[in-house]
Amino acid sequence: MASYEMVVGLEVHAQLATESKLFCSCPTDGFGATPNSRICPVCTGQPGVLPVLNRRAAELAFRAAAALGCRIAPVSIFARKNYFYPDLPKAYQISQYELPFSEHGGLEIRDKEGHTQRVRIHRIHMEEDAGKLLHAVGAEKLDYSLVDFNRAGTPLVEIVSEPDIRSSDEAYAYLTALKEILQYAGVSGCNMEKGEMRCDANVSLRPAGTEKFGTRAEIKNLNSFHNVKLALDYEFARQAEILDSGGRVVQETRLWDAERGATASMRSKEEAHDYRYFPDPDLLPLHADAAWVERVKASVPELPAQRRARLAAEFGLSDYDAEVLTAERALGDFFLEANPERGSAKTLANFITTELQGKLNSENIPIEEIPIKPLQLCSLVGLTNTGIISSKGAKEIFSEMWKTGKDPKELVQELGLAQVSDEGQIKAWIQEALAANPKAAEDLRGGKERAAGSIVGAVMKLSKGKANPALVNRLIKEAVKA
Ligand SMILES: [Zn+2]
Fold first, then answer.
1. Does 108 lie in the same domain as 133?
2. Of 73, 90, 375, 434, whose Cβ has the fewest other Cβ atoms within 10 Å?
3. How far is the CA of 363 from the centre of ligand 1 (A)?
4. Longest C-alpha distance within the chain, in Å?
């Protein structure tokens, strides 16, 4: 059996985060709404209507290009992509073909060991989405199909990578990095469940060590990053088997069937000429004014890679912590708004990535809606760092803050959670504990450090759990030495 190398290029559609559609003023909030309640003559392709480009959509598309390091074309052209399908009322989709608005960018992907690698982006163009066909209503299968045009005309960017991806893990890393960038830049919500981000994969194999690309299959219907990974691994095995048996891979479009965990042939791959592209005569060429482009470029915020570097440099966080905090922009924003001292940054990061993140997941609410303010969390962490409360107490206070939005300092008093750090009091408890546990006391004096555990336990019991543990440990050592 020969050994093969996987060659993958990804085409990602991302919905631009506009309030209205690409060429009309219908709202884009049609997901889950009554079918055909977000439509007008333009997005349903009625005769005599004219499309007008949504300025905000163009702005977000250009921002995506800037964030992905693409060159922006001074002039781009909208083209008609002709095909017939019942969810496409005009029988053509307005897209861009020969002159897309941006090309030649790229992004860095990282593997588990932290090695980075660049995946080039071939082009980004704007296009409108199609509608949606329904073949069932609820559990009831229909013997006819219904069409919902709420989504028709929704603004998308299609981001086409170069075939630089060599494994399903790299594909996963690419999609993760792309999603992070689009979300940080405010270009797209990238919610795959709502269809805001979709991916098609072109995959081919070639004998390891050779340059020439093999024949590729295009895989559609990949509705999660996990499925992209599974489908690529499946395709690799399928194509390798064909090649090993002396067969030839057919250029075709295949559908991923998540239930079966397999791809199946859908149709032979269409070529560009099948679509009879031509410039849309209803839309003027898009001239990107240089000053406007500069403004759009300046609107790109700090991106995940830059933020990770800053968290490490400014706050001394580890790669892992920086990674977790930047996976979602809002989480990192929360950390930065708490503005911790460098010394307590690590504890705050831990608290956010464990306690806070855990709570966000279990309650399933976005961080913007929680009753706790970043500065309050920072002050809670400060209370543990200075020994005023124990880490267990901090968790108790945290869940009370979550319920009431109260200030941690107030809650320390209210819940009686302040630790006792009075050395005199702790020494007295230690003497009492040593007297009550003569065997352990003797072992300790004889140098058996393990015996300290039962004395610590006794002191905690005497103090009703309020003795500062670090202090207790230190003072026990001093007491047995003396
Ligand atoms: Zn409309």
1. yes
2. 375
3. 36
4. 98
The last residue of one of the domains, among 296, 321, 338, is 296
- Are residue 402 and residue 460 in the same domain, yes or no? no
| Shared domain check, 284 and 309 | no
Q: Distance, CA 242 to ligand 1 centroid (Å)? A: 47
Contact indicator for 326, 308 with CB cutoff of 8 Å: yes
pLDDT tens sequence across 421-458 = 888 888 888 888 888 888 888 888 888 888 888 888 88
24-29, Cβ contacts within 8 angstroms, sequence gap of 24 or more: 24/51, 24/52, 24/153, 26/153, 28/154, 28/155
* Planar angle of CA 473, 479, 482, nearest 5 degrees: 140
Phi, psi of 306 (to 5 degrees): -65, -40
Domain shared by 172 and 270, yes or no: yes
Number of domains in the chain: 3
pTM: 0.81
- Whether residue 195 is found in the same domain as residue 252: yes
Quick one: 292 and 308 in the same domain? no
Q: How far is the CA of 404 from the centre of ligand 1 (A)?
A: 44
pLDDT for the residue 175: 96
Name the residues around ion ligand 1, CB cutoff 5 A.
24, 26, 40, 42-43
Do 267 and 386 belong to one domain? no
Gap between the Cα atoms of 270 and 265, Å rounded: 13
Lowest-pLDDT range of 116-130, 237-251, 265-279, 357-371: 265-279
Centroid of ligand 1 to alpha carbon of 86 (angstroms)? 17
Ligand 1: distance of its center to the CA of 147 in Å? 15
Domain boundary, last residue among 296, 317, 348 = 296
Range of the domain at 58: 4-296
| 184 C-alpha to ligand 1 centroid (Å) | 28
Q: What is the 18 CA–ligand 1 centroid distance (Å)? A: 13
Note the pLDDT tens digit of each residue in 76-110. 999 999 999 999 999 999 999 999 999 999 999 98
What is the CATH classification number for the domain harbouring 476?
A: 1.10.10.410
Please indicate whether residue 403 or residue 9 has the higher confidence score (pLDDT): 9
392 and 446 co-located in one domain: no
Q: Count of alpha carbons within 13 Å of 475, Cβ hemisphere only?
A: 22
- Between CA 247 and CA 251 the distance in angstroms is 13
Average pLDDT, integer, range 121-133: 96
**Per-residue model confidence (pLDDT) at position 30:** 85
**DSSP code for 421:** -
